[in-house]
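Hydroxylase
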Amino acid sequence: MNSEAIARMIYGAAIKLDAEDFKGFMRQCGDDFRYSIRSYSPELGQEMVWLEHDRKGMQDLFAMLPKHVRMTGRFKRHVSVYSVDRDDDRHARAHSSVLLVHTDMEGNSKLFAAGQYEDLIDTAGDTPRILERVVRLETRNLGPGVHVPV
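Predicted structure tokens:
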């Protein structure tokens, strides 16, 4: 599997999240999928873990979204894949930049969050699958009502 196929899959996963097609996003993830959102706190001098789920935890999160009070409007992810490096015959690691833009109900768009994706990709099958995604945010103030993954 080449780097271009992996990058297309990462872009496709972002499009699925933009559309809130969470089932479609999960189809792009492996059976042992893990997801976390982390940010380094200079005040604490350490990394903070804001969210950490396995595949079932993510599916439960998505199932509960309709019951949460959420920010109104839409999110759009701008993803740029920086590198795809092979670990071995079955795995690759991809590093990407991600910008999350929020557009409110009045049509005003603002940068909401900036960070990176660190993805572990299973390349053994016909199509690549995300095994692990670590989102490392630079942004540390997201405000209330954010329940969708970055």
